[in-house]
Structure formats: C-alpha cells, structure tokens
Amino acid sequence: MAGVPTWMFWAVSFLWDFLVHAICCSIIMLPLFVINPKGAFLSSAQVGGPVYLLLLVYGWASIPLSYFYSFIKNKPSSAYSLLTTVNTLVGVIPALVMTILYFMITLNVPLNKTSLDNALWFFRIIPNFALTWGFANLNLIGLDPWVCSRITNPEAICDGPAEMLGIAACCSSCPPGSPKKFCYVPRDPLAWDVDAAGPDVCFMLFVGAGLFGLLLLMDSWMAILCESLWSKLRTMCSPKKTNVSADCALDGTMTEDAEVMQERDYVEQLVLNGQTSSHALVAFNITRNFGPLLAVDRLSFHIEQHECFGLLGVNGAGKTTTFRMLAGDLSPSSGNAFIGSTDLRHKLKKFQSAIGYCPQFDAQLNKLTGREMLEMFALLRGVPSHMVARVVNRMIDTCDLKEHANKTTEEYSGGTKRKLSIGMALIGCPPVVFLDEPTAGVDPAARRRIWCGLQEMQSSTGAAFVLTSHSMEECEALCQRLSIMVNGMFRCLGSTQHLKAKFGQGFTVLVKLCPAEADAISTAIASLSARMEEEFPGAWELKDSHQCLLHFHLNNTHLKWSHLFERMEALKLELGFEDYVVSDTTLEQIFLAFARTQREPENVAVA
Prior knowledge:
Blueprint: H1 6-34, H2 45-72, H3 76-106, H4 113-123, H5 127-148, H6 154-158, H7 162-165, E1 172-173, E2 182-183, H8 198-218, H9 221-237, H10 258-272, E3 281-290, E4 293-303, E5 308-312, H11 319-326, E6 334-339, E7 342-343, H12 348-352, E8 355-358, H13 370-380, H14 385-398, H15 414-426, E9 432-436, H16 444-461, E10 464-468, H17 472-478, E11 481-486, E12 489-494, H18 496-503, E13 507-512, H19 518-535, E14 540-546, E15 549-554, H20 561-575, E16 579-584, H21 587-595
Parallel strand pairs: 5-10, 5-11, 8-9, 9-10
Antiparallel strand pairs: 1-2, 3-4, 3-6, 6-7, 11-12, 13-15, 13-16, 14-15
Helix pairs in contact: 1-2, 2-3, 2-5, 2-8, 3-4, 3-5, 5-8, 13-14
Signal peptide: 1-22
Domain ABC transporter: 281-512
GO cellular component, one term: membrane
C-alpha cells in the first residue's frame, strides 16, 4: 500500500527469515559436535556438510509455505497451530509409517518394494517429510564407519543378510591386492538414491522455488481476477437473495433518494467521458457479494480535493467492506474506483500507493517505537531522508503522540495505538486517506486536537478524506458531505445541514424548571405537559425527565421557528420555569431513523 513492489516485499521478508533460519541451523549443529559419541551425522565432513545443507534447504522450502498460512488465518497463533498440525500429519507421521513398512520388508513380509519406492518419491515433495527422511538416511550413512569397525566376521554376515541388516556399505568388494574380501566403502550422502539425502535436497529446492513463485502469483492482479471470477461464479450458482435495503424514505416507501440517484448518474458520466482525473476519488458501482449475500450494492460517489466524505452506518451496513475494497484489500465483485486516471482493477499497486489507510484494527510492530513506525512509513512513502525527522515530528504533534513517541507500541493503550494508526495513514501526504473509525477509544481532549490536525493537513495538502465513525459529533466536525449506509446501500447523501433539512423529524425542546421540592416539581411537570398538549396537540412527547430538566420532542415538521419561540416564551412567562433550549433534529436522530431498517445482525456476514 506504500508502493513497495510485491516481489520486493516478499523477497526481503524471505531473505531476513532465511538469515534467521541459517543462524538457528548453525546453533542446532553445535550440540552435534559435543554430544555425538558414535559419530552419527558428524563422523566426517562428508556427512556433516550435507546435514547442514539439509537444514538450510528445509528453510528454503518451509518459509514460503508458512507465508501461505498468512492468507488462510488472520491470527498468528491460529496460523501457527494449523501449520504445526498439518506438518505433523503430512510430514512426520508418513515418515514413521514408511519406516515401519520398509522394516517389515527386511522381515520378509510380502510387501511390494517398488510401490513403496514410488510412494517415497511422492512424499518427498512435502518439506517436513523430506527433512525427516533425509535425516534418517544421513544418520545411517554417518553410522556406517562405527558399525563396520565392529564387525568381527564380515564373511559370515556379508555372504548372508547384509542388505537386510542395512550394512551393505560394509560389504563392498575390496580393491585388488587387499587381504580382505569385504571392505567398507563410504556412501555418497547426496547421491540420487532412495537411501541417500540427495533427492530430499533437490525436491526441497524445487518446492521452495515453486512455492515462492506461486506466492507472488497469489499476491498479484491475477489473484484478484481469479477471486473476482470465483465470487461471480458463487453468486451465479447460489440462490439469489433479494436485498431488501432498497433506498427508501423514512416512511418506508420504496423510493430511492434523489441525491443518491443524482450522484450515481454524475459518476457514470464521469467514467463514460473519461473525466475521473478531475476528482480526488471516484467510486463507480462498487459491489461485493459473499455467496448469495449482497454485502455492498452498487455504491457510486465522488470526492473532491480538500473534501472529507463520511460513511455512516450501524455494524453490518457494509462500511468496512467498502473501505477494504477501496483500499485494495478486498476485490470488488463488480464496479471500479479511480484516483485520478489510475483505476483499482487494472493498476492496483499504483492505486494503493496513492492512498493512506487507517484500518479499524491497529496493525503495528510491537517491538518498534511510535517514532520508528512513522519513520519507516515516511521512507516507504518516498519522503526524502533529510526531511524524515521534520515530517515525523510534525505528525507526532498532529496526532498528540509527544508523550509516547519513544515508547514501543506494545506499551501503548488502545487510544494511543489509534493515534499512531492515524499518523501512519497521513504521513507522506497521500492524496486520498481512508480513516476507519480513527478516534475510537481516544479521549475527548485528544480527539479534538486530532480533528484540528486533520483539518489543518487537509487544507495544506489538499488531501481527500473518507471517514467512517460512530461519533455523530466527529462527522459534523470534519465532513463536508456524508452518506448513511443501510444493508450495503446509500440511503441518503449530502451535507449535514441538507440531511437535517430534508429528513428532519421536528424539534427538540429542553426545559429547566426552577428548583423546588419533589411534590412541587411533579406538579410543575404535570402543568407543563398539559399546556404542551394545548399548544402542540398530538405533536409532542416527553422523552425524559431528570429532576428539574425535561426533554420534549416535537414531531411537527411544518412548525416555524418563530411560532415555536413565541409559544415557548409565553409558556415561560405563564409557568415561570427557569430556562429552555430549542434545537432542530440532530444528525444522530436521522441516523437512528435510517438504522432501524438495517437487517438483523445474524443475517449479515460482513461488517
């Protein structure tokens, strides 16, 4: 996402892991020099070298294999458990079974040795099996000198069960002129033979190279294309599930909001006319299916430079799925997105290099400090080396990280990790920044400082922000436009004030009574309630009362502000309450009204 080529990322990761593996192999070899009374493995350099080579090539094959498990499991502990289980089942256990079967042949049990040999070649494709079998063979080869030196009557054994006893190396023909009939001839540990380690080394070299190539293929545009085709195939083969979330008004009528339709038509014209480069971000008919479930349904919107666009929705509405698609972390089932003239589907790496992404869950290296994380991302984003320190210090101030910048991230609280994630997304000034609940868990004072920093950076760099948040206050403070998502679709779109004016549901009236005894307060509440019914018949509701503070809701959307204030002033003079506050419908009330049409959580597969 920072513009590092796929091959370089995996190659550097592999080189580092292989270096660590080589050091571990050297440490493993040390005890063999100390505790090795019979000379097994290290009877000579001829065997000791192949042992070390076998350990090295095992890392060559197993490291890329372990990378594949990162695609299967999200948690390292789960991936490690799965890797250990699979290695045991397909590596160690088959090696034990094959050893037993070969031993049974030496006992004249009627088994087909040719079939066993063929099966052995197949199992050697598995790195763990190849390592186990190769070690067993090298152990026997290393013990040959010790075993042969203890044979006192070679003629009696070599003329009979030598091969059955596994000591054929002790019964080779002696060179001419030798007084002995049978001599020990060292075996080549790396010979291309069933009883040597040569095939194991070669197979692991081949498997490692193949797995690494397959890994690069999985993380390329071809993998995204295959995933998209697979998703379409699953959708075609699954029973169609109707998305009941068609955009509708708050009264439940099945009508799409005019602004949503207008935005879709505008984006369609931009794409058809090739004018996407005039906008910071253009998303066109972004759709994602999970089997029969339509998680995100034909989202279309555009974002200008210097603009913050907000996505609101309850859990399961499709916000995070939309973010993951636009960040290139999840391929869309259909649709496309553009940053300038770069499109998501065909130029993924270039598209990703133009975005900053603050995910919902923090992704940081525990052993690095916050400053080191920011320095690393600054260098990855192409910040010149001589400017890194200044850029990082500015970002530390923006994200309120001064007190914790030099601590390792494993010491950070949840709120501090969110601050660092914001900084990692913003550093390097990417033209488009995705912020998925950026200030969740951050204290109110720090949250406001971060808001100010975001607004300052937006105005100075021209970056476009895409924001999701459960904080209505945050959306009102940062977003020029926002949309409310329900069941993967836009239900409304526009500025905060436009949404309040269009979908407003009346007024909120807070009344503060004069302090008095409990009985007097009860009487005052009853009197005020009676007068509210007279002034606003059938259009008021007492939502809450707490001691002297009363919360009324007026659902008369046609009432003028001037008339409302006139009536409240008259009531204040008549009943003598201390004060009152009148406000229009809040963004939260509008959001909750739309959210009531969201599908039940158990029917939603992806947030």
